[in-house]
Design goal:
Two copies of one chain form a homodimer. The first copy, chain A, is α/β, with parallel strands linked by helices. Chain A has two domains: 7-26 and 107-237, HAD superfamily/HAD-like (Rossmann fold, 3-Layer(aba) Sandwich); 28-105, Putative phosphatase, domain 2 (DNA polymerase, domain 1), CATH 1.10.150.240. Chain A contains twelve helices and six strands. Chain A has helices at residues 7-11, 27-37, 44-53, 55-63, 72-86, 94-101, 113-121, 134-144, 154-157, 164-173, 188-196, 231-237, and strands at residues 15-18, 125-130, 150-153, 181-185, 200-204, 226-228. In chain A, helix 7 (113-121) runs parallel beside helix 12. The radius of gyration of chain A is 18 Å and the shape is globular. The two termini of chain A are 16 Å apart. At the A-B interface, helix 8 and strand 3 of A face helix 8 and strand 3 of B. Chains A, B: Belongs to the HAD-like hydrolase superfamily. S-2-haloalkanoic acid dehalogenase family.
Chain lengths: 240, 240
């Protein structure tokens, strides 16, 4: 189900830059499992969604300057500490909290991700362009066998997506034009910001990103260069 | 020929951080070949050694503040432009100069490097900690099939080795103690600076780093945690 493919644009692509949370890895299932393994007496679905939802306001505090530069690890921890109070989980040791917070270093890949990335890597440079900190992305990529050519992170540019410095930073790192970079994400807003910087864009459907109880609209947007159900389909569309 | 191994120290190692030029890739042979392919009427041995030798004074200009932050690509180009004048090579087009400067993106790995790194990766996180810019390291690693878990560069920390921010930065990125990082390099001065920051160190002999006409002292220094002839020998010493 390839739609909106523009072979001429895609032909100029040199680097594929991937959003990671939700696009390449299944944070919902992974965090749910970690909470389950700890036997916490909470509504795991609500806890997981709230932890993820707390991430954007936390990022915005950094983007607005209210907070100085703070890594996603530290932002995840701030949100976690609030949630543990809200959900009245008061018995965890510091070591347990630290370990739970590192659940985000252990997210599992979507079933198509390793095959899709491996195929794409044969023809393109593939890198992350995630708000996750470098260590988080490296640990996750190692445990999930994600074969990146390079891990790029907001941490490299000291700006969080959707700051243009992140999208344009990918092009600058590789000394290529913004139009030679294709941003790949399961989120239309991420892609819209990338497009505004002159990048090509590929949308990946991840209808279960927020779990089985929350609907996600995965309908195509004609402004994207490509629309694919998963990363293997993207690889096929890009001739890999 | 393993010397000075300290198994207790090595047991605490989580991340191996590699110097790249000379340690993992053979810049001398690669640059010599690129000059040869261009049929330049110069003493290739002298030109190659002078290009590499020009790198340190250029870095020092950045470290002293005389130059603002400048990538290795741009420093290589500054040195190249001077050398082309010194060697009276005046006929190259801008495109040819740009391409020649990117010779550093195409350096070949030492024959043991891919096997050694692949084995080390099975047990440790392996990353670069090079003064090379991220794009240079990523392009080189892709063309030479170097299987890094993560590419770290002076560019991430906006400080060049031997600034402590680079060595300590590796530990900070991975949220581990400096003593859990082992710096791997073919240069004793690089290792001495890493050691001063609390890192473990492994010296790799590369007697031909400067080509067949220039002697390189590769004798052991007892202050290093490990001393190995090449990266396969390092892998064996580290139980991989």
């Amino acid at each position: 189900m390839m739609e909106h493919m523009n072979p001429q644009l895609a032909a100029g692509t040199k680097v594929l830059a991937f959003d990671v949370f939700g696009t390449v890895v299944d944070w919902y299932k992974s965090v749910m499992q970690e909470l389950g393994a700890m036997n916490l007496d909470v509504d795991r679905n609500k806890f997981t969604l709230a932890w993820r939802a707390g991430y954007m306001p936390a990022i915005q505090k950094v983007m607005s300057g209210e907070l100085g530069w703070t890594s996603i690890d530290d932002l995840h921890r701030m949100v976690l500490d609030e949630l543990l109070e809200t959900f009245q989980v008061l018995h965890l040791t510091e070591a347990e909290k630290r370990n739970l917070n590192k659940a985000w270093h252990r997210l599992e890949a979507w079933p198509d991700a390793v095959e899709g990335l491996t195929r794409l890597k044969s023809r393109y440079t593939i890198c992350t362009m995630s708000n996750g900190n470098i260590g988080l992305l490296a640990n996750m990529s190692k445990s999930a066998s994600l074969p990146w050519d390079c891990i790029l992170s907001a941490e490299v540019f000291r700006k969080y997506k959707p700051d243009p410095a992140t999208y344009l930073g990918v092009a600058q790192v590789f000394d290529i034009a913004p139009g030679e970079v294709m941003m790949v994400a399961a989120h239309q807003d991420d892609l819209a910001h990338a497009r505004a910087c002159g990048l090509q864009t590929a949308y990946i459907e991840r209808p279960l990103e927020y779990g089985p109880f929350q609907h996600k609209d995965v309908s195509p947007n004609a402004d994207n260069t490509l629309h694919a159900r998963n990363l293997v389909e993207l690889a096929v569309a890009l001739g890999c």
